[in-house]
Write a structure and sequence with these properties.
Layout (H helix, E strand, L loop, with lengths): L4 H16 L3 E3 L11 E3 L1 H20 L4 E3 L8 H7 L1 H4 L1 E6 L6 E3 L5 E2 L2 E2 L13 E4 L3 E3 L9 E3 L5 H6 L1 H8 L5 E10 L14 E11 L4 H18 L7 E5 L11 E9 L2 E12 L1 H10 L5 E3 L4 E3 L2 E8 H12 E7 L5 E7 L10 E5 L5 H15 L4 E3 L5 H11 L3 E5 L14 E6 L5 E5 H12 L1
Bound molecules: glycyl-adenosine-5'-phosphate.
The site of glycyl-adenosine-5'-phosphate (GAP) has 19 residues, from strand 12, strand 15, strand 18 and helix 9.
């Protein structure tokens, strides 16, 4: 895909801000890094956690019909044989005979009817061959075929193989879902676009089990639910697109799939898949394990294997979409009429890593500092706050704007009653986006902010 210059500059600025402000670092950076692996720094981990917590709240806590689980990353190899991953979880790979680059065949441009190397432009490439994306490992002390297993390439399979245990212990009735958030690993041929295509990443997956006749309707229902979720974390609907996978491109077991795509600076790309997988996975595991995974219908007294609708989202991709969406550069004019550029991350308050910056107007005034620290300790157990006393107040606001903190509280001489009782025990509350300030009693602060970030 050809990227225009301003889009690639924007992406470079986002990557650089992520490093500079502690959102995302290259893994093992001091040793030259590891391609396709990333570490989340102090702000990145908060952002990611807020996203995962909100997903969990929406999909598990706020519903009667979904329960959670947390499966292991290592599983019996037979899981991956039965699911089809050992045989078919592959991407087509080619080698460039000229520059020796190893490339994904389906992502290359075609010139004169031939695939073209994206590194050196050569047309002299090998024929595509299937490359399995699973990371192989050995369990125990012997490294032979009998001890082989894989790091899981998706979280979904542990849900399928625990279906019966969860059903028997949770007393759920169809339709109901099992949700999981966790790490997945894929040995991608070309990790790229920052964290977008990584080799280690996290997924948020729901397997929603149902009767066969409910599948198609639930596919539509979950698509709408997931779009509502993205709106509620602040991603505008005009940057999201629903791509319906054409029937002739669907997997043989699929009853329909939607991709939810986002307009990243590097192009429109998948954030999440919402797929109706019929009874494929449970049937495969039932046949391979010999253990019944059917559901007993109390009313009809019949046993049947449930069908499933699967909304499967990437944590890292959604974090990247949130960062790309939030990044803005405003031109603002200071008190002296001088124009300057303000970099701001306009995160929805719900997912912003820090909710409120709290500042004494001056750091060398003990009364201001004491009062500010009282406010910090009052707010701290309810939300992530940041105390900052260094530098001019404008610069402190700017630093918080750059990491997306939606609110700033300043304790000034009015707060401590130096200008009379009228404004005593009130603070200024600054809004990151409008930069407007209002005065608010300290006693109302916690409730006011809590309502905004919920
Ligand atoms: N269980 C179904 C499943 O895993 P998928 O479309 O392969 O479906 C689901 O993956 C989501 O996981 C994707 O939409 C994407 O958000 C995320 N994902 C997949 N591969 C990824 C990678 N290499 N790096 C980052 N996220 C990835």
């Amino acid at each position: 895909m050809v990227q225009d210059k301003s889009a690639s500059e924007r992406m470079e600025k986002i990557v650089s801000l992520c490093k500079r402000r502690g959102f995302i670092f290259q893994s093992s950076e001091i040793y030259g890094g590891l391609n396709g692996a990333w570490d989340y720094g102090p702000l990145g981990v908060e952002l990611k956690k807020n996203l995962k917590d909100f997903w969990w709240r929406r999909l598990v806590r706020e519903r009667d019909d979904v329960v959670g689980m947390d499966g292991s990353i290592l599983m019996n190899r037979q899981v991956w044989v039965a699911s089809g991953h050992e045989q078919t979880f592959t991407d087509p790979m080619v080698d460039c005979r000229n520059c020796k680059a190893r490339l994904r065949a389906d992502q290359l441009a075609v010139k004169d009817g031939k695939r073209q190397c994206s590194v050196c432009g050569s047309l002299d490439l090998t024929e595509p061959r299937a490359f399995n994306l699973m990371f192989k490992t050995f369990v125990g002390a012997t490294e032979d075929e009998s001890s082989v297993t894989y790091l899981r390439p998706e979280t979904a399979q542990s849900i399928f193989v625990q279906f019966k245990n969860v059903l028997d212990t949770s007393r759920q009735k169809l339709p109901f879902g099992i949700a999981q958030i966790g790490k997945a690993f894929r040995n991608e041929i070309n990790p790229r676009n920052f964290t977008f295509r990584s080799r280690e990443f996290e997924q948020m997956e729901l397997e929603y089990f149902c009767r066969p006749e409910q599948g198609l309707e639930l596919l539509e229902y979950w698509l709408q639910e997931r779009l509502r979720f993205y709106a509620d974390i602040g991603i505008p609907s005009d940057r999201l697109h629903v791509h319906k996978i054409p029937t002739d491109e669907l997997a043989h077991y699929s009853g329909g799939t939607y991709d939810i795509e986002y307009d990243f600076p590097f192009g429109r790309q998948e954030l999440e898949g919402v797929a109706y997988r019929r009874d494929y996975d449970l049937t495969q595991h039932q046949n391979a394990s010999g253990k019944p995974l059917a559901y007993f219908d109390e009313e009809t007294k019949a046993h049947f294997v449930p069908h499933v609708v699967e909304p499967s989202a990437g944590v890292d991709r959604t974090v990247l979409a949130l960062l790309c969406d939030a990044y803005a550069e405003d031109t603002i004019t200071d008190d002296k009429g001088k124009a300057e550029t303000r970099t701001v991350l306009r995160f929805h308050p719900r997912i912003a890593p820090v909710k409120c910056g709290v500042f004494p107007l001056l750091k060398n005034n003990a009364s201001l500092v004491v009062k500010t620290k009282e406010i910090v300790s009052e707010l701290r157990s309810h939300m992530a706050v940041f105390y900052d006393e260094s530098g001019a107040i404008g610069r402190r606001y700017r630093r918080q704007d750059e990491i997306g903190t939606p609110f700033g509280v300043t304790v000034d001489f009015d707060t401590i009653g130096e200008n009379g009782p009228a404004k005593q025990d009130t603070v200024t509350l600054r809004d990151r986006d409008t930069m407007q300030q209002e005065r608010i009693p300290i006693s109302e602060l916690r409730q006011y902010l809590s309502a905004k970030i919920f």
